[in-house]
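Data follows
____________
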Amino acid sequence: MTTKENHPKNNNQNNYFCPVKHLVIIGQVIPEPKSTAAGTRMMQLIGIFSEAGYKISFLTAANNVEFSEQIEVHPIEINQESFDDKIKILDPDIVIFDRYVTEEQFGWRVSEHCPKAVKILDTEDLHFLREARHKAFKEKRAFNHNDLINGVFLREMASILRCDLSLIISEFEYELLTKTFRIDAEILFYLPFLSEKIEKNTTSFQKRQHFVSIGNFLHEPNWQTVLKLKQIWKDIRKNLPEAELHIYGAYATEKVFQLHNDKEGFLVKGRAMSADEIFRKYRVLLAPIPFGAGLKGKLWESMKFGLPNVTSSVGAEAMSRDLPWNGFIEDSDEEFTNKAVILYTNESIWNQANENATKILEQVYSKTIHIQPFWTTLYNITDNLDNHRNMHFLGKILQHHQLNSTKYMSRWIEEKNKNLL
């Protein structure tokens, strides 16, 4: 067994000796960092382990290849015993499940065939929180605690408890789990988006023009955000008749393009092939996000490229701690409109917003803040895996029940599929 005494120490925080050799990632989709924040997140995790010298195998049943990252992919099938043979051959030391549904599908197989592998759940965001807020939004009422106790909650919580460690991207969600639902902090680790090279904005206020909104349209909150913008854009346009709002987003359908209106200056552009280029040329990002969870990749990226924003309280949730925001946070349509006009026209306020962004990136998202604690946590779990699991015995209990329900449901589907051949 590896011990911390065997781990060479290195003062360079980007170069860690890894206590294990092989990481297997089981992904719901192949990462698309140019399309989704989840894709960016996954590529950052791959980078962390790659820098530490891990061999990495990415397994997925998905085939989204057109816009996905060019990484080596091991194809797998759901509810097929062929996965058992593959995971035994790979013999991983660590397995990362991308979202709780992936852990549901493959977690029991990993436990059965690779019982010594450390199981990590990357929650992306808390899906039960997003589901609860979505329900309240659809019913046009305030979100409340009872909304959280939904079907997704039961599944996602069970997945968290079955894993040795869960990565939580938002401090709000970390506190929700530890304080409201009493999940032991020893099986959770707060790991937000990571900023490495933090540079101040180099594209001035005067060289930028127009408003922008960006977001993957497979994500329902992004579609609702554009619908909200369609409602309030006319009021912004009355104050700024020369300004335009450009809408970008992957997987835009016909209903999105039907919102395009040249006369109103409401222009739907579709997929953005280079987010860097987009963020560097516009003056203000608009993001009146009505519901959701986790961290908003568009707002984090807007900080990196000197693009101040106006967003909602849900959009800014857990993004900046107590630091001043890089723009404005408003939930009422009237105030959102007013602040959008102010940020677009007042150069000194715009410049201050960018100064705020630099401080947020340095104090909240800097990679050097989070990496050493992450490796320390992982070392402790790896070096004491049996004790860790015995201390957090609810995972064993849930694993037992899962092996008598989810497992046999999967086996039933497997046999049914065989009979169809």
Summary: Residues 176 and 182 are 8 Å apart (CA to CA). Confidence is low (pLDDT under 50) at residues 1-16. The chain is about 45% helix and 15% strand.
